[in-house]
Amino acid sequence: MVPGEIADYVDVPELTVWDGGDTAPIREARFYVPSYMAGEWAFEVMRGLPHLEVCQLPTAGYEHALPWVPAGVTLCNGAGIHDASTAELAVGLILTRLRRLDDMARAMPRGEFLHDRFDALADKSVVVVGAGGIGQALRRRLEGFECDVVLVGRTARDGVRARDDLDDLILEADVVVLALPLDNSSRCMVNAGFLSRMKDGALLVNVARGGIVDTDAMLTEAGRLNFALDVTDPEPLPADHPLWRAPGVFISPHVGGNTSAFLPRVGHLVTDQVQRWQSGDPLRNVIVS
Amino acid sequence: MVPGEIADYVDVPELTVWDGGDTAPIREARFYVPSYMAGEWAFEVMRGLPHLEVCQLPTAGYEHALPWVPAGVTLCNGAGIHDASTAELAVGLILTRLRRLDDMARAMPRGEFLHDRFDALADKSVVVVGAGGIGQALRRRLEGFECDVVLVGRTARDGVRARDDLDDLILEADVVVLALPLDNSSRCMVNAGFLSRMKDGALLVNVARGGIVDTDAMLTEAGRLNFALDVTDPEPLPADHPLWRAPGVFISPHVGGNTSAFLPRVGHLVTDQVQRWQSGDPLRNVIVS
User: ipTM of this predicted complex?
Assistant: First the structure.
């Protein structure tokens, strides 16, 4: 049982699309996919499904679902489904700010031809903080751009530097991309001290979570540094927040994951998970079981 | 002898940087590099250099130099030096328009949070018209983006479709990128008929020359189709031209090639060419000899 839009991309037998009304048509459900951005009702309904075995979320986040999962039901998240879309946006944000496409967009209504020599991504040193799905997807996308890319993870491993090296790495970085989860180790990790180590004109890109960066510290450094942010703290950013108009800052409204690439990838994951479950193979992305 | 900025990236012995004044210091010059965007004086001076053997241009375009090259002097162009920068901009233009980063930039001064589900490049079908240096550089950059890329050249060859197939290819394309030279076969190639074959919502990107596209036909299709243009006809586009404000159109001010990536690549080419010339190896990019 999956929500309508996602169902268009799911290829499994015995599929029921539930409209959120009477639960009678789904009383026998054994595998359940709540809608994207669903309210609590979409999770509460699981308590009335006596045969339920698996709840597959269409999101990487899962904290909101935990309180509602009945005992004995396996909860899987959607890790990976936003990687393509979010990594792609990171490239878009880098190019937009380095090449000043945002300034050019704003100059268009005035018919201003802002020709000048701007930065290119080619030859630049890029540090990607976060070596999970999004970080790896970003590295694959940057491979053709003639730039130098370093991935930084919690611990060093093949092709990945340790977070302990970050203080040194950011000294030489032209671009720093945040693509790591928000947790106690990353909250406000990018503070005034972090930003002060970045060189003049360097670019910080955030496609992770707003809370990783200290907003006041960004406002202080805006102009000396450049920022391209898909996420902010607070979020949504109030219309009168100074970050909207700070120099060298580009903001997209948290559109990293929710694109045309989303539904096919959820559909593919659900299809694969149902096949695994029916064949008795281990499920992917298990959060609780 | 090379202009100052380029000279910073040239590694050859017996280098003279000429300031454009008295020609006495360069009377013995045998290998000459005119400045980027130089006026006629920078070409006319060649007539007073009796020992000149090679003129290496810092541009891919060479028509402006032809009338000034003395008999017996070899003229080489800068084919390839803009490939990285221009291909990179093409990716930036695709992502800017598909993901509506231009609309977001314009909404920023109003503090508007334009969240919605927009298109991603992932899963899209991209047709690149032009299989030269820029087209190949663009294909390398698009490899990691989970999209389908077809290159179209004058004639079919390995990995390249023929221009005769273009009428069929554009019917299914989500993105068409123009990266071919302007000549009699390409002038106004993208006319009303061409655009009418593109599907609703498709995106045309032009990083080639403005004259390849019929501007009036674009204005007619703007809104049904999307456009991201680094070059236009006329150029520079007058401030009151309707293309600046047409729906679904993003314009950058001919900044494809002139970026931070330009000087190192010119310097590398000049260094390599001087070494070839001194060793008696064949020069690259020979236009006339």
Answer: 0.93
